[in-house]
User: What shape does this take?
Amino acid sequence: MTNTWQDIKNTDLVVVMGGNAAEAHPCGFKWVIEAKANRGAKLVVVDPRYTRTASVSDFYCPIRPGTDIAFLGGVINYLLANDKIQHEYVKAFTNASYLIKPEFGWNEGLFTGYDETKRGYDTSSWDYQLGEDGFAKIDDTLQDPQCVYQLMKKHFAVYTPEMVERICGSPKDKFLKVAEMMSECSTPTKTMTSLYALGWTQHSKGAQNIRGMAMIQLLLGNIGVRGGGMQALRGHSNIQGLTDLGLMSNLIPGYLNMPTDKEKDLGAYMSTRGFKPLRPGQTSYWQNYKKFFVSFQKSMWGDAAKVENDWAYDWLPKLDVTYDVLRAFDLMANGKMNGYFCQGFNPLMTFPDRGKITKALSKLKFLVTMDPLETETSRFWENHGEYNEVKSADIQTEVFQLPTSCFAEDEGSLVNSSRWLQWHWPAVKPPGEAKLDTEIMAQIYLRLKAMYQEEGGKLPDPIVNLRWPYANPEDPTPEELAKEMNGAALADVTDPTDPTKILVAKGKQLDTFAQLKDDGSTFSFCWIYAGCFTESGNQMARRDVSDPGDAGLAPKWAWAWPVNRRILYNRASSDVNGKPWDPSRKLVYWTGEKWGGFDVPDYGPTIRPEQSVGPFIMNPEGVARLFSRGMMRDGPFPSHYEPFESPVANVIAPKIRGNPAARIFKDDLVALGTPDKYPYVATSYRLTEHFHQWTKHVWVNAVLQPEFFVEISEQLAKEKGIDKGGWVRVWSNRGSVKAKAVVTKRIKPLMVDGKPVHVVGIPQHWGFMGKTKKGFHPNSLTPFVGDANIETPEYKAFLVNIEAIASGPVA
Ligand SMILES: Nc1nc2c(c(=O)[nH]1)N[C@H]1C(S)=C(S)[C@@H](COP(=O)(O)OP(=O)(O)OC[C@H]3O[C@@H](n4cnc5c(=O)[nH]c(N)nc54)[C@H](O)[C@@H]3O)O[C@H]1N2
Ligand SMILES: Nc1nc2c(c(=O)[nH]1)N[C@H]1C(S)=C(S)[C@@H](COP(=O)(O)OP(=O)(O)OC[C@H]3O[C@@H](n4cnc5c(=O)[nH]c(N)nc54)[C@H](O)[C@@H]3O)O[C@H]1N2
Ligand SMILES: [Mo]
Assistant: This one.
């Protein structure tokens, strides 16, 4: 989230699109109700189904799964065509005026630089024109045909209201109503907030869905302001922490990236991470990259990371390709990965194409699960259901189950959607033989280290030299680990302007990442967390609810990264002169001497407005990007692509199937189904009564939602002779499931390009373990396809067929 949960109460318009917050985030959703009750805010829902969120909305618009970019593109076109943008904001704080290279272009659904054999782009033309001074060229009048504003106008012109209706099946008048409601928020005193989650990410162009809305929010002047922003409603309680700490295969903590094979030494690695400002006077915060990186290396290897060995650069793995989870399972399925540690993950249920996952797990020599529950994954060799199964007798995989504690039994921090690190304490002791994950990992590490010390090995250094400074090496404490994430001084850190002044004495915890050094005198495992555990104690354990100005920030409750800033890009809440856009919703403003207000400002409190430093300090140009400069793998602007399995061709680029840069392997392309055999669009989602696959182990939840079902419209039920509550078989090109049919008015057929499209809704909480009745998961059916940028699987739009059957799943 750019803002906080409570800040939702400050908004005028809540748009829930690509999520179902009332169902999946019921506690946070109370702030939407607050906004409605206290400010008269309106709630708009755009979803293929009339959801629990829609049931309390002011306006609901249906949409075909996987077509949000056409809808959002339609809104962008509407805002530009009707001149409903916040001009001053767009000019000052975005790259609308930046000139793009003349060789950049867009033709028949592809941007320049596409290479079909690589299924990817050379993105070099998606860039600014640079002047001789090295700065990006701009045209303040926004008239140059190569400026981002004009290119954007051209790119989105195709998404007329008629086109939106043709692609999305959203009736034109309903689309126009939503566009009009959003456009009202282009005035400086009206704001809109966007709440989204997996309805947007789980597509082969998921990241571009989010960019589409971010562009709208920038055009409306809604980023960095109270009641505005982009709210990624995160999933598991600590999934924000997962990405922060670099658990993605291409990241290291704090959103630094893993070196690639080509970057042979630190010099090569740093040469593309210079982040020279692209406009005069910009801060370009990533210029501190080396400080964060060296401090990370010091936290990993302590004294063994030194200037002579490039701070142990060689000990980091180097990527040849991205090792996302799809690729990992593909490697397993092809016999190229033969051991697997599966910690807190139940992929047999939750990863796409169960047939492929089963095949993958069957090829392993060993599988270790670390989980408080006995998961389906740990019993993958039992064949339940109809899919491309492997015979149990042919499986050689040895399975080890290591019982762990769960969140209620351990101490530590969870990072929530608001980027708050909140400390929590154990309620009970883990039962039986269950151990804390940290203890298990420490045990494994110490044994590995002993083996390397005794037997040598190809590269023992990174393991034997790992810094391991815990009082009990066998069981590090949460406090020790948290302090390490924050970081400390390894030598006295002095003031650069006055070396006699000691800012942090040797051995003391750091207060902020601004104190980090690239000379080895500091360490911090995750630079964005610096400040969470200081000499004044554990900031994450703070529980002070005070909220100055009733701003919805509660700055002394827990601790937010970065530097306890509650709203990102908050400098943009004031105009170029530092005056709040909306005096009734002040956030950060220029007092005449410094930046004051309710939040920690984006940059140095004494940087004067006339210095024109942009609020988007992580970009070397200081402004936000309407045109994403080379960062996205699948295009600088979002554009509509059909899901890989779709009932219709792409009307904008008929020859293109799916996002041309999406993650898909050859075998999985072959496994895709076509609309002649699978005419219905399926989508999958969650229910409040269950949490994924865990709560089916609990009687109370099992009683609330005992049995697997699918949801279909009354029209489809009639067409297929399916009774309310009757049994159905639903199948895709990859598998088949049996379920009870819920026939509902909440799903309606959509008219897409002149023909009706039916949607089959498939909730996802059942399996063959636990207290609920035995059931199946949509992932027996889903395709093994992922987003182009972050490889999130396309769970939300695929093709199925359905028929009534006489009996359901026993056996
Ligand atoms: N009770 C409960 N709460 C949970 C969870 C749980 O299992 N149980 N899981 C947690 C986790 S890990 C996550 S990630 C979050 C997920 O939170 P959400 O993303 O909100 O949950 P979903 O139910 O997966 O999907 C949300 C909605 O997306 C809609 N949708 C499907 N396809 C499309 C599309 O193409 N466009 C649009 N606009 N909408 C579409 C679906 O109809 C559904 O209503 O929930 C978290 N909260
Ligand atoms: N078709 C379809 N598939 C989906 C989705 C969808 O919308 N549609 N949603 C996707 C999303 S957003 C998500 S997040 C995934 C979820 O996928 P998973 O993460 O595989 O699902 P969970 O059931 O939450 O599994 C987490 C496991 O962690 C265990 N656990 C809990 N606490 C601890 C602990 O402290 N330590 C350890 N070691 N284990 C612990 C739980 O018992 C559980 O078995 O599913 C994805 N799959
Ligand atoms: Mo999730």
Remarks:
- Residues 198, 202, 235-236, 343-347, 350, 370-373, 375, 404-407, 437, 684-685, 692-694, 764, 778-779, 782, 795 surround MGD (ligand 2) (CB under 6 Å).
- The CA atoms of residues 9 and 33 lie 8 Å apart.
